[in-house]
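ok so i was messing around last nite and threw this chain in just to see what happens. nothing serious, just curious
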Amino acid sequence: MRAKNNLSKTHILWGTLAWIVGLALVFIIWTILSATVYKNNGVLPNVGKCFVAFGKILSSNQNWKAMAIAWSQSLACLLGAFILSTGFAILSRYSKIVYYIMIPFVTLARALPTAVLLVLIAVFLLPVPALVPIVVAFFVIFPMLYEGINNAIDNIDHKQIEMANVFNVSKWNQFWNIYVPVATPYLFSSLVAGFGLTFKIAIASQFVQTVVTSISPDYPSIGVILSDALKNKQYDLVMGWGMIAIVLSLVMELIIKEIGRLSMPSKYQDRKILINFFTRGKYHA
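result:
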């Protein structure tokens, strides 16, 4: 046990050191590029200016409102896409009609260029600008979650399902005690990857919405702030908002990972316990 604990601590230590070294390399490369390649045009300000801009952004209540709106739009989109993709993935397993209907929809949603999608939805939803980031992000994230959930279902051991059927285990108990424990890691990994992508798409949607329609939404928008910063060549503010976006994404990813860790079912990971589950009479249909 001590050996395992020591090994775990060693892995954490080396992992932390590697993370610090990687971050240091990013700042070193950033400093070199800002002092050489982008010295004259100022497109990439030095690290110090960007951190000053980062602090200025955090000091404004309006900016906090813009962050909260983008964050809530991303979360609403992610939860909506997750619920619908889960529902349709399960339905497609029981209905061939649903399965074949979903194929062209998922293919088109995955293949359609994001830039085209941004422009079309920004124009179509002109009367309700708050929905634009949510709808655009939904069309981007839904195919990824749908395929991830289907992959999770495919990774379920069919021998366990056959064993459950032999012992007359009800479908409900099969779902909670076989499907959920196996699928949960895949679902939470999809959610972790999905939020970062959703947040990026939401901010990009706000930006394109402002540029394409020439109409600013009637709520604090990171896209509008970025558009104004670019027009005024305030590249340090653009980089500062980029740092804000990274921090917000990391915070949400950590929250999702922690929820996943706490809810990760491990009760039936041991095959002996799984067999006991099959043979207990109270689980029979």
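not much to say yet. DSSP finds eleven helices and no strands in the chain.
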